[in-house]
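HUMAN: Quick job: go over this next protein and say how the chain folds.
***
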Amino acid sequence: MGLKGFERRLERLVEGAFARAFKSSLRPVELGRRLTREMDHQRTVNVRGTMAAPNDFTITLGPEDHAQFAEIEDSLSSSLADAAREHARDESYTFMGPVEIHLEIDPDLSAGSFSLSARFKEGPGGTTGGALVLNDGTRITLSGTGAVIGRSPDCSVHIADSSVSRRHAEVRPEGDGWLLVDLGSTNGTRVNGATVKERRLVDGDAITAGDAKLRFEAS
């Protein structure tokens, strides 16, 4: 889809929602453009022969811009991370771990100026990082201990649906990836429509636990 397509997506993700919040000349889309340039510039071939891109980004702003962006830091960071993942999918990049965005302040920077650094950062336990996205858009980042999906309130992915067992399925770290394991659920666990007992997950897999739907993102 190319960089222009990515810029349009970024504008849709952050610019439209936050346009009224900014008085300086620095726009969120400028951060996204620099971020994708760094991804493209630092991409490298990993040991599996696939193209890897940096996944940990630090954006340094002057005091004036930092004060404005800090008010929406969580939403902005989440939106930029989403846009980075989309760019990675378009370019067939992989990540070593979760995509993370950090904002820092430099008192010597003037309004409208910023710097961005990018690095490769391994996920917890050596995994490539990942997340489960619920049907309502909620994103649950996977930790090194994995996550249990179920109806029980103590499950890390709690789904209040009678078709879901109390402890329905578990996503476990395996090597540099993630393994989905059914925990003897009543109504079964499916990946892309196929009933499974165990399945190594890949980016974009559609998981169904009972009637509840989730999506796995390898990020």
Residues 200 and 216 are 11 Å apart (CA to CA). The radius of gyration is 19 Å.
